[in-house]
Specification:
Blueprint lengths: L5 E4 L8 H21 L3 H15 L2 H9 L3 H8 L13 H9 L3 E5 L4 H10 L8 E3 L5 E2 L2 E2 L5 H10 L7 E5 L2 H9 L3 E5 L3 H6 L24 E3 L5 H5 L6
Parallel strand pairs: 1-2, 1-6, 2-3, 6-7, 7-8
Antiparallel strand pairs: 4-5
Amino acid sequence: MSSSLIWLFDLDNTLHDASSAVFGRINVSMTDYIVQHLAVTRPEAEELRVQYWRRYGATLLGLERHHGVRAAHFLAQTHELPGMEAHLHIPPADRAALNRLPGRKFVLTNAPAEYAKRVLTALDLASCFEGVISIEQMRVFGQLRPKPDARSLRHVLARFKLPAHCCVLVEDTLANLKTAHALGLRTVWMQHYLGARAKARVPGRAHGIQMEGRLHRRPAWVCARIRRLRALHAWTNHQPLP
């Protein structure tokens, strides 16, 4: 049965512990970029970064709309992160489980493509996935619309010819799961790294709003909760055919 499923995996805090490894560095890089290219003080840059993240769900959207910042330049500059690979890890059992998981597998991330490929290579997962669907591919009518925008998800499904009823989104971010469920996807909430994010005081992905909720509760739009990726095998055995 599971061989007919199409898996869409978020990247950061789903496949690896990004809160501890990279999120802090990315936030610093974004603030540095704003200071340099908008000629503002560091406190002003911090305020803009957080303000646009809260208003639009991504700092980049605010910079693009209000300051004419080019998305490609911003993403490349803020995700350079030299030496990042040394800090990236995945439990070996989860890596093995992903490789054994039947069905087509894609990464669906609000991060830029080059960064995503570096992370997958460092985690020894590059060969596990058929493709990476990154933020650069989330433009609808010229407007950048990262997760959890429903228009963007519809666009992605149509572009890659992925039937919604065959797809399973595995994510740490509830807002993204809610959108996916409304469009007919099955949803799995990955909770393993949420504690690390809270401990690091990271309110959400650098691209996207996190609806926190209580970790012991399963919202109606979540089909399953897991703490380890290897738990997906048991879950798929109880799923009806698409």
